[in-house]
Amino acid sequence: MLSEEAGKNISQWIGSAKKVAVLTHTNPDGDAIGSSLALALVLKKQGIDARVVIPDGLPDFLRWLPGIELSTTFAYKKEKAIEVIEGADLIFCLDFNDPDRINGVKEYLLRSTAKKVLIDHHQNPVRFTDISISETWRGSVGEMIYLFLKEVFVEDVLDKDIATCLYVAIMTDTGNFNYASSYPEVFHIVGELMNYDLEKDRIYSNVYDAFSEDRMRLQGYCMQEKMVVLPKFHTAYISLTDEELRRFNHRKGDTEGFVNIPFSVKGIRFTALFVEKKDRIKASFRSRGKFPVNRVAADHYQGGGHINAAGGDSFLSMEETLKQFQSLLPEYARLLSDT
Ligand code: 5GP
Ligand code: MN
Question: What's the DSSP call for residue 223?
Fold first, then answer.
């Protein structure tokens, strides 16, 4: 994964670093947090003062992760987060490839004179680090961190806590090995992680059986009242207004995974979730097979992502957004029936 020169430089930077900041993207998911904590825990074991900076809200289902005390959320503890970034002599950027994905953290990252290393698996990376390890075919950054650690450290630096973080990263970014994992290496890596007394069933339960009653009711409401199925286009979508979210005492992360719900309907290959935010409507897209949702996101929602998972924004009203979404489906009809 690393060229000889990159490997040498990174080893040297880690070797001489006193303080390291690990940054990840806004609205962080299991891969973002799991990968970042795993790397920070390894560096801490090397005697380095390693910290993770998250731009905004950490979802509840990840708060139990080992090493979580190493993280600071920029949106809540801005001064502390800035101090971590400004004090770092080495910065890792994980699970994002464009400084625009880290909101207000961006200016501090770009301003920093620390060495910067990107480790990411999203398409079309922007160049803003000294070294960029971009492997877009990988299902998760968790996997990449595992391989990265193997290359950078001669000795075994993993332990149960670090393996747990990496497993959460891989498990969540592959939808529990449901997608983005159709190649043997993922399972080889997971097999290796199992050697560290990994409690895989407990981890699953911590992540997936951790919803509040409100969240569960919101999911039921989405399925019963809000899911629109368009069999002709193999498409289904769900939308949620701010009022609806408030009715269900919405908390950050509650809509996580809702975009996948309609795939349980036979024949659905393309799904969308539209969630009203303060100043925009956040659109999430998923597909099965070859339908490129990143193209939809880039063409119509100023966004991007992977072939099967992408997102963007709409600045129309919810009603207009949904109307527009339906109206652009004929454009993709052939692709949708082919895949
Ligand atoms: P989600 O639907 O979970 O928010 O995002 C899924 C994937 O779509 C992300 O991993 C990211 O690659 C991409 N994505 C989501 N929102 C945006 C966006 O606003 N801009 C870009 N470029 N990519 C996005
Ligand atoms: Mn990821």
Answer: I
